Amino acid sequence: MGLLDRLAPHLPYVRRYARALTGEQAAGDAYVRASLEALAAGEASLPPQLTPRVALYHVFHTIWGGTGAKLEPSEGSGESTDPAHRLMRIPPRSRQAFLLTALEGFNPGEAAQILDTSSTEIEHLIAAAQAEIDAELATDVLIIEDEPVIAADIEALVKELGHRVVDIAATRAEAVEAVARHQPGLVLADIQLADGSSGIDAVNDILGRFNVPVIFITAFPERLLTGERPEPTFLITKPFQPETVKAAIGQALFFHPGIGRAAA
User: Fold this and answer.
1) 3-state secondary structure the chain
2) What is the mean pLDDT of the chain?
């Protein structure tokens, strides 16, 4: 199998990554093209110990670093609510680690191979990016959860990230009443609720009125794996790890179209 055949399945994704990294598709494509030209000319090679996809991203970063490319925000990028431009306000190294894991789906070990660093350093960089995102995107949160102890745990996590919990609903009807009183910027929802009603139905009611990111936190994930779940959603299985919930909140807010800085 030739070089291009090996890399072809991964090219749309490295283009997506390059666009997010630079904030512009044309600029991102220029660096992807330079990487491929370097590979074709023998000026760069895919590390044999890495999978083709990881190796391609590694070469991209090697070529990128060799050009002296700037990753600082361009003038005028500060006010945009487009995720591609909001990303430019995150320090470059943290931006790379965050995108490789949150957008491209690499685990910390793979991201470390791509960036020639350690998994520990990747985790530190991701945490720094997460802090930037949380500070920028503080919003009002509706929690739909019928177990008081779990609801309290989720509320504490949300507040720790700097968000505001505007209501906690235990049933579908309570959730609908809550959004009628105050439009949330984020919904965290269980599926099986106190009166036998469904969190999925509650979320469908909300999404019918508002364009808002949703995270399901549930012990019944199979109920969302039917191809009929509301979109866009994130899914976290109970019992959950606090860091998993925190990361999902940051990603859901950051990548949701039209989300900008919430009013204080």
Assistant:
1) CCHHHHHHHHHHHHHHHHHHHHCCHHHHHHHHHHHHHHHHCCCCCCCCCCCHHHHHHHHHHHHHHHCCCCCCCCCCHHHCCCHHHHHHHCCHHHHHHHHHHHHCCCCHHHHHHHHCCCHHHHHHHHHHHHHHHHHHCCCEEEEECCCHHHHHHHHHHHHHCCCEEEEEECCHHHHHHHHHHCCCCEEEECCECCCCCEHHHHHHHHHCCCCCCEEEEECCHHHHCCCCCCCCEEEEECCCCHHHHHHHHHHHHHHCCCCCCCCC
2) 84
Domain architecture of the chain: domains with CATH: 3-135 (1.20.140.160), 138-255 (3.40.50.2300)
pLDDT in tens, 199-211: 999 999 999 999 9
Task: Name which of 85-89, 129-133, 151-155, 176-180 the model is least confident about.
Answer: 85-89
Residue at token pair 């925000």 = 73
- Residue 20: the pLDDT is 82
